[in-house]
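Moderator note: this is an archived Q&A kept for reference. The question asked for a predicted structure of one protein chain; the sequence and the answer are reproduced below.
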Amino acid sequence: MKRVFVLLGFLASFNWALAATNFININQADATQIAEALPGIGKVKAEAIVSYRTANGDFREIEELANVPGIGAGILNKIRDLIRLKQPASENSSN
């Protein structure tokens, strides 16, 4: 029984670590990528995000997503930790 708990603990930590690396750059992703990556965001809301970004320029703060029609505080809080506004430095370098 102890082995089962140890195994479950290991699997839970592995899944958490894996999930923590699945970010989406909201300033570069297309509507399909956004819809697939963010829970609660379907094709229509993803297209609204891209339309807002096209009309207003890149998002400078995650909270700016609340200006997109259909994105309320509840959805924003749900997706906040999955969103990035810039590429990590290691992906920007040409080395």
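Archived answer notes: DSSP finds five helices and two strands in the chain.
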